[in-house]
Design goal:
Blueprint lengths: L3 H14 L9 H7 L4 H7 L3 H20 L8 H8 L1
Helix pairs in contact: 1-4, 2-3
């Protein structure tokens, strides 16, 4: 089950994936898409800039773990799925 913070981060990630300019995405829109109140976003992040920064750090750590995982010992299908 996703935590509220994870829901918020995943909404921002979906905007990144879709190529949205995050400058044009309001915290109110993010909150609405996460089905929470705007004030709840502020319980986790002090500002939009902090939210964006933390989202990119989350993505970097996620991709770092994928890139440093031991995929040499996996079969092709397993390695492919791991990279996705």
């Amino acid at each position: 089950m996703q935590t509220t913070k994870d829901k918020i981060l995943n909404i921002v990630i979906s905007h990144i994936k879709s190529g949205s300019n995050l400058k044009n995405v309001s915290l109110a829109k993010i909150a609405s898409e996460a089905e929470i109140g705007k004030s709840t976003v502020y319980e986790y992040f002090k500002s939009k800039e902090e939210l964006i920064s933390e989202t990119y750090m989350y993505l970097l750590k996620h991709y770092e773990s994928i890139l440093t995982s031991d995929i040499e010992h996996m079969d092709f299908k397993g390695a492919f799925i791991e990279q996705i």
